[in-house]
Amino acid sequence: QTKTGIALLYDEVSENAYDIRLKLTKEVLTVQKQDVVCVSGSDHSANHRTVTLRRQPVGGLGLSIKGGAEHKVPVVISKMFKDQAADQTGMLFIGDAIIQVNGINVESATHEEVVHLLRNAGDEVTITVQYLREAPSFLKLPLGSPGPSSDHSSGASSPLFDSGLHLNGNSTNTAPSSPSSPIANEPKYEKRWLDTLSVPLSMARISRYKAGTDKLRSNAFEVLALDGVSTGILQFYTAQDSADWLRAISTNVSDLTLQNMKMANKCCSPSDQVIHMGWVHERLEGTDSSQLYKFKFLALKGSSFYIFSTPPVSTLDWVRAEKIYNLCEVLFKIHKLWLADDCWLQANLYLGIHQDFDLEDHRPYCFSVMVGHGKSHYFNVELCSELAVWEKSFQRAIFLEVQRTGSKTYMCSWQGDTLCFTVDFALGFTCFDSKTKNVLWRFKFSQLKGSSDDGKTRVKLLFQNLDTKQIETKELEFQDLTAVLHCIHSFIAAKVASVDPVFIDSQSIARKYMYSN
Questions:
Q1: pLDDT value at position 181?
Q2: Kind and range of the H or E run holding 144
Q3: 253 and 399 assigned to the same domain
Q4: Domain count, the chain
Q5: Of 51-65, 162-176, 227-241, 271-285, which gets the smallest average pLDDT?
Q6: Same structural domain for residues 342 and 458?
Q7: Which residues contact 71 (CB under 8 A, 6 or more apart)?
Q8: CB 163 within 8 Å of CB 65
Q9: Is residue 211 one of the residues assigned to a domain?
Q10: What does UniProt give as the signal peptide span (predicted)?
């Protein structure tokens, strides 16, 4: 997607916001700020321009000003009136900060002091100005050219007063003065949007949250490049604007990620392909009462689920993951979906999913990946569409791994005997003696009617005998029971999918929610 629009850049230190323009292309998000540039003639200094205004009997200096030291901002030109003195110079612009008046420095002057100086400066007033690139949004300066018709200011009227200097002031000259027109040899200036920062979107990440917390920024987010370069906090005038930009940028990031995956897969064997990868937030457990989150980069590749602190950019990076889990032994669960402004749908209440987490945080679009030894990772993404992609990708990656693997065997024990327990995609469940290899029992997947476990090592599997129709209970102990239970779940789900893929699709929670909205 390509997109251009006006936004604000929020400074968390000063708590001010500045007008910017955003340009989105397929690969880059560019932040632009307005500045005055010399377009012809000899440029004495585009930063500082000195202009002589001739006060006119009707219209005076032809401008209004805002700001002042009492507001911790310079005095700036806030309005210019078409075809009057200031406009006729061609060298002054709305947003210019007044630095000097007739040689007197006014950078630290109050609003009233500058008004008094300009009103009493005589018929010819020489002012030195510099364009204020980061004018706080509370000044409510128009973003267009001079003239009332171009007053594209960003919202309601400013709390700061506009002092109009289009009146005569203390002029002693009653005859019409010559207009303040530009001299032929003088440089000509224009106000333009200039690129100040470009953020590459390949492997970029987006966050609507204040760093490390679950506090959602209002109509704002930050985009961070792979090398850590940040756009800063991008703030939007409406929730719709914010949502549109978030979706557009996310779409371009996703498209580039897909390209990166295709490039990586050219170097990988068919059994080791990247199914999906991308940024998420991971909630850190065992800290204090406040929820802490960190960016993590997840990848589903071949037989494994990877967790990185930074994306893998070379073949060697894949062995440097923080965590690597076998896909057959993980369980993906959706925990939260966003319904309305302040309404949560917790998946365990409405969709029959077990809830193992304390979900007092305020983030929507949450999922967990349960791994071996009862441990879990809890993640959050920015959009429901991302959650749906992760759900489908985990499902696909696990099913592919089950079909590739065919079977998995685990050491177990019961009543002092060392046994082997095999889950086989074609045959179902088999238990045999680890020494003699004699098969003790075998059941199809369809014969498993239930199970229970003690949450530690022991599990009871309830099978229906095909001949007697009676339930037979088989008890086993495993060193890592969670991994075995996840493996059983993966194999059964893959078996169902191979028989009835439509049923599996109908169970997608995130996609159900997306379509219903």
A1: 46
A2: none
A3: yes
A4: 4
A5: 162-176
A6: no
A7: 111, 160
A8: yes
A9: no
A10: none
pTM value is: 0.79
Q: How confident is the model at residue 11 (pLDDT cuts 50, 70, 90)?
A: confident
The answer to whether position 356 is within a domain reads no
- The reply to whether 449 and 365 lie within a common domain is no
Spatial distance between the Cα atoms of 427 and 501, rounded to a whole number of angstroms:
20
In a domain, 422, yes or no: yes
Give the containing element (helix H, strand E) for 397.
helix 384-405
Domain limits for position 437: 406-484
In this structure, the answer to whether residues 260 and 329 fall within a common structural domain is: yes
Inform me whether the pLDDT recorded for 433 exceeds 80. Answer: yes
% the chain with pLDDT above 70: 81
Q: What is the CATH number of the domain that holds 292?
A: 2.30.29.30
CA distances from 438 to 51, 428, 435, 479 (A): 100, 17, 8, 22
User: Helix 239-266 vs helix 384-405: angle between axes, to the nearest 10 degrees?
Assistant: 20
Under the phi-then-psi rule, with left for phi > 0, alpha for psi from -120 to 50, and beta for the rest, what region is 240? alpha
Compute the distance between CA of residue 208 and CA of residue 223 in angstroms, rounded to an integer.
9
CB 319: neighbour CB atoms within 10 A? 9
CB-count exposure of residue 231 (10 Å: 0-12, 13-18, 19+): buried
Is the domain of 290 the same as that of 259?
yes
Report the C-alpha gap between 10 and 237 in whole angstroms. Answer: 12
Residues 48 and 116 in one domain: yes
Please indicate, yes or no, whether residues 30 and 92 belong to a single structural domain of this protein. Answer: no
DSSP secondary structure of 91-121: S--TTEEEEEETTEE-TT--HHHHHHHHHTS
The 10s digit of each residue's pLDDT in 34-56 is 888 877 765 555 578 889 999 88
- Which residues make Cβ contacts (< 8 Å) with residue 443, sequence separation at least 6? 428, 429, 463
The pair of three-digit structure tokens given for residue 201, joined into one six-digit string: 């979107």
C-alpha–C-alpha distance, residues 79 and 66, integer Å: 9
Residue 229 lies in a domain: no
pLDDT band of residue 58 (cuts 50, 70, 90) is confident
